[in-house]
Design goal:
The complex is a heterotrimer of chains A (345), B (583) and C (242).
Chain A (H helix, E strand, L loop, with lengths): L2 H32 L6 H17 L4 H23 L6 H22 L6 H12 L2 H10 L7 H23 L13 E4 L2 E4 H23 L1 H11 L1 H6 L4 H23 L9 H15 L5 H21 L4 H7 L1 H11 L8
Antiparallel strand pairs in A: 1-2
Chain B lengths: L1 H15 L5 H26 L7 H19 L3 H23 L6 H19 L9 E2 L4 E3 L2 E3 L2 H23 L2 H8 L4 H5 L5 H27 L1 E2 L6 H14 L4 H26 L6 H15 L3 H9 L25 E12 L2 E12 L3 E5 L6 H9 L6 E6 L2 E2 L5 H6 L2 E3 L12 H7 L9 H5 L4 H17 L15 H13 L5 E5 L7 H16 L3 E6 L2 H5 L4 E6 L2 E6 L1 H5 L2 H8 L3
Parallel strand pairs in B: 7-12, 7-13, 10-11, 11-12
Antiparallel strand pairs in B: 1-4, 2-3, 5-6, 5-8, 8-9, 13-14
Chain C lengths: L3 E12 L2 E12 L3 E5 L6 H9 L5 E6 L2 E2 L5 H7 L1 E4 L11 H8 L1 H6 L4 H11 L1 H5 L10 H14 L4 E5 L7 H14 L5 E6 L2 H7 L2 E6 L2 E7 H6 L1 H7 L6
Parallel strand pairs in C: 3-8, 3-9, 6-7, 7-8
Antiparallel strand pairs in C: 1-2, 1-4, 4-5, 9-10
Helix pairs in contact in C: 3-7, 5-7
The chains are: A mainly alpha (345), B alpha/beta (583), C alpha/beta (242).
Chain lengths: 345, 583, 242
């Protein structure tokens, strides 16, 4: 293997690694704030890619229907909840906040599709469609389980994953999609040629991570999310609602997932169920960070990307076997590092 | 009667099913196989509060082991069963060993990853037949006769399934099984009776993996063909859905869930493609939604609806006398516990500073102090739940400073908990039986095969004896959660006594008790002292201790403030200041 | 004329089958300090938690004239009810200043602009917090943590501050300082419901007192009267003879 190949593989690895990094950050965020192991994270990746592909074909993406259906279910659940807790007065406002944004987004999509907008606008529209699905998933599936154990939440997360994958197949079919790259330009550095899409991925990841870092360390809402992750009871006592925090973290997770999907679609063919494996690779990064440390998880995610890239060169058939088997030594390492502690219910 | 009748009806139905059509035989065989896997998953998820998405992968390990060894090496299927089980045990042990010490979500995440890994491996390695798989797996032979008839195989599967149900029931109702059920009360509670929480969790995980292995082996010989698809992650997840929907807290829930999901899947695979005019496994949408709904509204699953309508299980008879060996209590005045210059630091904060005191056999000593004085920390240092930073603790003549709580329990120290840790869904008697963990030796094999009945009877009689000793003979068969707090605390004392301790450690036993309950508790403790037992009580309530204890040690800010006879302590100005405060 | 701020009527709290608080009734008037004293395990913390909504309960809790029985904790905070629990519940991995800022979370959501000034007020009350503003809350000493917990609570501009054992685990000198600050708070218009084991201190700074025993209100009265009541000293202080 010559230096050229080494560098090309490293470039591929870092590109995928950057995506896994974003997903790992979202997973840690959601786990910290809600104690939910967000197995369905990968579905937002698929949805992002597939929605963008539909928009490019000038077709109404299935995710718009999903958005409307989820909003209706959420509205019904909220009605039941408010009626049973004798708070009917709040009903009109609550229903409006649940139903109006999805309806507006659907309408917008309907208006925009025939216009064949530029790629940038389509990406924005994709984000607008997919992001609200996150909070709605939280509202419908997880909020009623807010007091459940991590185990129950995990089982629910897996169930949601099944539902979203099934719906992905239903709305988008079994065909894979590949979207055109954001840029056809190539950057040549000596003998190495870096593709424009890779540069986009690096730049977008960097900007997104910087934005997130700013959000968590400088803004009150960012601090509030961290506070919930550190100490749920303390957060409630200063008036931060765990439901609000859950909603925000799911919105962030969906947005990050969607953006990852949009960025990865020009690099690899995305099917309705591709997101799952991509999301799981983000998980390996998150586990490296003990589901708690962002920097260690980031390093772990990049490592997963590079491991994947090199193993696909040497043992292409065993790429996924190697990447997922890597979790065993990682867990062993974490287990040796961790002090014995007890989980109380 | 209803229980027995229902069971008979179920057996009859099972026996007659193959007479109808071969469709029923196939469905029945699958339900039986999946029930075996689900039984293990109920123990893991519903009882031990862990879970795994890799049960299908364990099936795959067994199926592929037997396929390769019988097809390529001509081994006997019975030999391959043993090899597969050994292999499964090794894998499950490894996975458990590296994940079970960490948070409960690491095991399922590890099983997801290893399940996927294995699935890709099955599909990629040429020697494993790739995605086409391995065909012509040899048939099972019984005494030289091949078992090729699907009807006979159906019966074999159900015999195995009912046998595993029987074994699992027996296991839950044994020494180790009770400890596993008690994990719900927290690892530290179980460990205070000498069991290792980590080992118990590992046992459950390996057992559930072995059941999956058994099912995988049967599957390979039933189909006479293996390929990767039935052992993928989706199938692993479906097993979990089976028990959540069927009922994760009851072994029968496993069978109910396996039946419901299997039948529903066939039904949906018939209907959905017509509705959607597309092919694909859309039933996963329905299963996912069902699972979320059950989690939100019907935590006990479908079986809980049946269970509520059944009469309670009849109680087992309790013998009058138990002949479990008892320790010889040390002679009065002999030094039993010696705390010598013990310090506990959390970072820079000293929770306990150079504490020293002694307790002699046959004494009741009270350790008191205002809230936050470090009493509970001191208590946990003695019981071994926390490691000391410096200093020595001697129990009898032995230095126990570096021992952990199960080892200290083994030496005759038994404790209660400030926040009562009984298992609400178990009877008072069963709760007390947990205490006897170290007094019998029955292993898992004896328990599973019900060869432990003699010792079980003894343990039951011993628990009943302790309950009589504390005056709760009437409440023996009530669920522990239905007792008042005062009685629950006394049950905890009975449970501690059931371990036959030399020294009883009580953590704030009077907190939250009413006046009369406190008096009853004090009477009970003085009686125990007359019987030769030594007691260390950590308590806030001075009045409760005044007429009960022989000596009092007072703590404040992690240090010893005073020590002496109750009457002296009461008039000690420093103690008054600490308690009443002053501005 | 005095104004009722908090009215609790026949409050019951159960843990499973165990009745932790039984038919407790109490009132707090605007501008007063009310203390609840009683032995360990009497249900004092449970009572506060139930008023805050942390613990489900049956009975009637009225705050500022409206029934808040079905109101979420967050809404109660926004209404001006604030609890400093026994465990403090600080954000240990965040700085002192971030902790204080988060204390004002509900004010911020309301669009309140005076957060900076409010923080200045807290700093002038506890100058030591200002010195430690960039330190992590987890690195503070016990007394400083209690100050931070109080400061964080004050950031939400509460009308009723509920304090669960503010003197817990603190050295006598710091207890003095903290209790002094608490009694000074009355002049800023904050009413206080105080739970203390340190009974003498509690009765000294409060206007009215309740004695909770086994989940029931056993005695009540003006603090000065309670402090002199021999039954209080005898029975619940745990020092009486039998």
């Amino acid at each position: 293997m010559d230096l050229q190949t080494v560098l090309i593989l490293a470039q591929d690895g870092l590109t995928n690694g950057a995506i896994y990094l974003l997903l790992a950050v979202a997973l840690i965020l959601v786990f910290g704030v809600t104690r939910i192991v967000l197995i369905p994270q990968g579905e937002f990746v698929s949805y992002g890619a597939l929605t963008l592909a539909s928009l490019q074909l000038g077709v109404m993406p299935g995710t718009v229907w999903l958005l409307l259906i989820m909003a209706s279910i959420a509205a019904v659940m909220e009605t039941f909840r408010l009626v049973s807790s004798e708070a009917v007065r709040q009903l009109p406002v609550t229903l409006a906040t649940i139903l109006i944004p999805p309806a507006a987004i659907a309408l917008l999509a309907k208006m925009c599709i025939p216009l064949h907008l530029a790629l940038g606008w389509q990406v924005l529209l994709t984000m607008l469609i997919v992001t609200p699905i996150g909070p709605l998933v939280y509202r419908v599936a997880f909020r009623p389980l807010a007091d459940a154990t991590v185990l129950v939440l995990l089982i629910a997360a897996v169930a949601v994953h099944f539902v979203l994958v099934g719906l992905g197949l239903l709305f988008f079919g079994a065909e894979g999609v590949r979207t055109p790259p954001f840029s056809d330009a190539h950057l040549t550095l000596g003998t190495l040629s870096v593709s424009g899409q890779s540069l986009w991925v690096y730049a977008a990841s960097f900007i997104l991570i910087s934005l997130l870092a700013w959000f968590f360390s400088r803004t009150l809402y960012g601090k509030a999310l961290r506070a919930v992750a550190f100490n749920r009871n303390g957060a409630r006592l200063v008036g931060i609602s765990p439901h609000l925090a859950g909603t925000y973290s799911f919105a962030l997770a969906a947005a990050i997932g969607c953006l990852s999907g949009v960025m990865i679609a020009p690099i690899t063919t995305v099917y309705y169920d591709s997101g799952f494996l991509i999301g799981l690779k983000g998980f390996i990064g998150a586990i490296v960070g003990g589901m708690a440390s962002y920097p260690i998880a980031a390093a772990g995610a990049l490592m997963v990307g590079i491991l994947e890239s090199y193993s696909s060169f040497w043992l292409s058939g065993y790429k996924d076997v190697i990447v997922f088997a890597a979790i065993i030594p990682i867990l062993l390492w974490r287990s040796l590092m961790s002090v014995h502690y007890e989980e109380e219910e | 009667m209803i229980r027995r009748g229902g069971f008979m009806l179920f057996l009859t139905l099972l026996a007659l099913l193959p007479l109808f059509s071969s469709y029923y035989i196939t469905m029945g065989s699958y339900i039986g196989l999946y029930s075996i896997v689900s039984l293990g998953l109920v123990l893991l998820t519903g009882v031990a509060r862990l879970t795994s998405f890799g049960q299908a992968a364990f099936m795959g390990v067994a199926a592929y082991t037997t396929a390769i060894l019988t097809v390529k090496f001509g081994c006997s299927p019975w030999l391959t069963l043993l090899i597969a089980m050994a292999l499964t045990t090794a894998i499950a042990f490894l996975l458990g060993a590296i994940t079970l010490r960490m948070g409960g979500h690491y095991l399922p995440l590890a099983t997801i990853a290893w399940g996927i890994s294995l699935y890709f491996l099955f599909g990629t390695v040429p020697a494993l037949g790739g995605s086409t798989g391995i065909s012509d797996v040899s048939a099972l032979t019984f005494f030289g006769r091949e078992l090729r008839d699907e009807k006979l195989f159906y019966y074999l599967i159900w015999i195995v399934c009912l046998a595993t149900l029987w074994v699992s029931t027996n296991l839950l109702d044994s020494r180790e099984g009770r400890a596993i059920r008690a994990l719900r009360g927290g690892v530290s509670m179980v460990e205070s009776f000498g069991a290792s929480g980590h080992r118990l969790k590992n046992i459950v995980f390996i057992y559930s993996a072995l059941l999956a292995c058994l099912a995988g082996w049967l599957y390979a010989h039933m189909m006479r063909f293996v390929n990767p698809s039935p052992f993928g992650l989706s199938q692993g997840i479906e097993f979990l859905f089976m028990i959540v929907i069927g009922g994760p807290f009851s072994l029968w829930g496993a069978i109910a869930g396996a039946a419901v999901i299997t039948l529903l899947k066939t039904l949906l695979q018939g209907i959905l493609p017509k509705l959607i005019s597309q092919t694909g496994n859309f039933e996963i949408i329905v299963f996912g939604i069902m699972t979320v709904m059950v989690l939100q509204w019907l935590k006990g699953g479908i079986w809980s609806l049946v269970e509520h309508r059944l009469p309670p299980k009849p109680a087992k008879p309790v013998n009058d006398t138990s002949s479990l060996a008892q320790r010889v209590q040390p002679a009065r005045r002999e030094s039993l516990l010696k705390v010598d210059g013990v310090t506990k630091a959390y970072g820079g904060l000293l929770a306990v500073k150079k504490m020293s005191f002694e307790l002699s056999a046959g004494e009741i000593v009270g350790l008191i102090g205002p809230n936050g004085a470090g009493k509970s920390t001191m208590f946990n240092l003695i019981s071994g739940e926390l490691p000391l930073t410096s200093g020595k603790i001697h129990f009898g003549t032995e230095n126990i400073s570096s021992l952990r709580s199960p080892q200290i329990a083994r030496r005759g120290l038994s404790r209660t908990f400030q926040h009562v840790r009984l298992i609400p869904g178990m009877t008072v008697l069963e709760n007390v039986m947990i205490g006897s963990y170290l007094r019998t030796r029955d292993g898992l094999l004896a328990a599973g095969l019900r060869l432990n009945q003699a010792t079980e009877n003894q343990v039951r009689a011993e628990a009943a004896r302790q309950l009589r000793r504390v005056g709760l003979a009437d409440s023996m068969l009530i669920h522990a959660g239905n007792l008042s707090l005062g009685k629950q605390r006394i049950v905890e004392i009975a449970r501690a006594l059931c371990a036959d301790p030399l020294l009883l450690l009580l953590d704030e036993p009077a907190a939250g008790l009413r006046y009369l309950e406190k008096q009853e508790l004090a009477t009970l403790l003085s009686e125990l002292r007359e019987q030769g037992l030594s007691v260390l009580i950590v308590e806030h309530d001075m009045e409760f201790l005044m007429n009960l204890v022989d000596r009092i040690v007072v703590m404040e800010f992690g240090e010893k403030l005073a020590e002496g006879l109750p009457c002296d302590i009461r008039s000690n100005p420093a103690v008054l200041e600490a308690y009443l405060g002053g501005v | 004329m005095t104004q009722r701020l908090l009215t609790v009527r026949d409050l019951n709290v159960r843990y499973g089958k165990v009745e932790a608080v039984y038919k407790a009734s109490l009132t707090v008037d605007r501008g007063t300090i009310v203390s609840v004293i009683g032995p360990n395990g009497a249900g004092k913390s449970t009572l506060l938690n139930a008023i805050m909504g942390v613990q489900p309960s049956r009975g009637c809790v009225e705050f500022c004239g409206s029934d808040i029985g079905r109101v979420s904790i967050e809404r109660r905070v926004a209404m001006g009810l604030c609890l400093v629990p026994e465990t403090r519940e600080l954000f240990a991995q965040m700085t002192v200043e971030d902790n204080l800022e988060l204390g004002a979370f509900t004010c911020h959501r309301r669009g309140d602009k005076g957060i900076r000034e409010n923080m200045k007020g807290v700093y002038s009350l506890f100058p030591r917090l200002e010195q430690r503003r960039t330190q992590f809350a987890g690195s503070l000493s016990g007394g400083e943590r209690q100050m931070l917990a109080l400061g964080r609570a004050l950031m939400s501009r509460p009308t009723l501050l509920m304090l669960d054992e503010p003197s817990l685990g603190l050295a006598p000198l710091i207890v003095k300082e903290i209790l002094h600050t608490i009694s000074d708070l009355r002049s800023t218009g904050v009413s206080i419901l105080l739970i203390e084991q340190n009974a003498r201190a509690a009765l000294q700074i409060s206007d009215y007192g309740y004695v909770l025993e086994n989940g029931e209100i056993a005695l009540e009265g003006a603090s000065a009267d309670l402090a002199g009541n021999p039954r209080v000293i005898e029975s619940y202080l745990g020092m009486g003879g039998v």
